[in-house]
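URGENT: need a sanity check before tomorrow's submission.

F., can you look over the Protein p34 record below? I want to be sure the sequence and structure line up before it goes out.
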Amino acid sequence: MDKIQKLAIGSIFIGTIVLVLKYAAYYITGSIALYSDALESIINVVTAIAAFLAVRLSARPADANHPYGHHKVEYFSAVLEGVLIIVAALTILREAYFGFLSPKALDAPLEGLAINALASFINAIWSWVLIRQGRKLRSPAITADGRHLLTDVVTSVGVLAGLLLVPLTGWYQLDPLLAALVALNILWSGWDLMKESLSGLMDEAVPEAVLARVREAISSNAEGAIEAHDLRTRHAGKLTFIDFHLVVPGAMSVTDAHDICDRLERALKDQVDGAQITIHVEPDAKAKHAGIVVL
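Structure tokens as predicted:
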């Protein structure tokens, strides 16, 4: 079992502990805002399970039906997480609406808030671990899980701060109002997560900064060639696919052209982790006098 799968299992374990704590906080107080926090924790556990299944499947080697591997399955997990976040937000809005119509005092607010604060602290530590390791390991599913938990932490802090004012002010409508604000914030994060994941499913090109490094590596390491054109990039999970046409003198031997390609592949893999490179070699008659000039 690799490190990504271990992180995914850890998310299920941590999510379950946090869910129990947050539900206990809601049960003690009857707070709709804390109910919204507990409901989001249920989503956390479900999506952690989905993320584990996704990273386990994405780790499978390429086969006859999937010659490019199974890496994109992680994006489906992230999209599913976005959908579930939106569903949870709509459910919270419904409860907040009825709670605003019939506000009530909170039971044992300080004890409930203390339990919720402990759960939020656990989430904060784990979200930092997931985001840091997800980016390092280039796992969209793990990174998405971490970002979702971080959003949960931010909203939990806001809820805790607001609920402290309820017993002080006696304004019980503040509880459902906070729940509604949490729901709107969750909706925004769910949409943002889905949008980012869909870019991977749609074979979106790498960011401009990465593309600039790719072009520089080709230009500086293609000595002996004439030009490179029709450069294309896309990302799928931890892999980045790079392909382009390399124009060489028509009289160059296959061996010499192959040596240039090997040099380019090494340079590109030094610049881009997980690069999968395809180079189409062409004779000088195919030059377009556009694209990447060889230095």
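My own read: The CA atoms of residues 233 and 242 lie 5 Å apart. Strands lie at 227-236, 239-248, 275-283, 292-293. If you see anything odd, call me.
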